[in-house]
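INTERNAL AUDIT FORM
Audit reference: QA-55
Scope: verify that the stored structure record matches its stored sequence.
Auditor: D.O.
Record contents follow.
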Amino acid sequence: MLGFMDAGRVVGAMALLCCIGSCIGATGCQNKLQDENLALWQQNRELQSQLTDANERLRSAPDPAQLASMQSEIAQRDAQIADLKAQLQKPAPGAPPDPSLAGIEVTRDEKAGTMTVTLPGDVLFSPGKTDLKESAKATLDKVIDAINKDYAGKKILVDGYSDSDPINKTKDKWVDNLDLSAARARAVTTYLTSQGLSARLVSPRAFGSTNPKSTKAASRRVEIVVATR
């Protein structure tokens, strides 16, 4: 049999073990609670973020009236462009149909805020020349009328392009295709300003053969780029 002192030691040891076990259990519970709290906090942050995004989308979304106004404005611009293209492709009164006029294009870039009128080089110039054809002046007059009507005071870029054929027959006049495209851009710029467009707003640029189209004929062109906003 255990003595009185031995029995006391056993009871004390058992009490100590119980105390340690209780502490370990409490620590485990506390860690579990901390993990759960952290998970709930993260979930709350995610929900708050989603709510903020939803509110931003609601605030940025146009109301029905604003959306209808924007759609009406786009439809009006599309109609203006279609009308201008039809006018540019119409031959002069009494003149025979000109197949080259079909190459005239009018496009709009909403992101860039521009309208571009693409005029084939054959419409504007004789081969290797930089003097405007008389018939080309009538076409440019229609462009000028459209600019004065819908885009008065806006900046205009006149971009000259060429095909990639080397300059041979007219090498005494033009160093290369870039030189030729620059001269043609200047010729169109000069005519636009002579008919009343502000020289402060119209600037020529030359690109030579750097941006070719599907054919050589289409690559030879002048693009009149008008700012729309």
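Auditor finding: record pair retrieved intact. The first strand starts at residue 105 and ends at 109.
Action required: none
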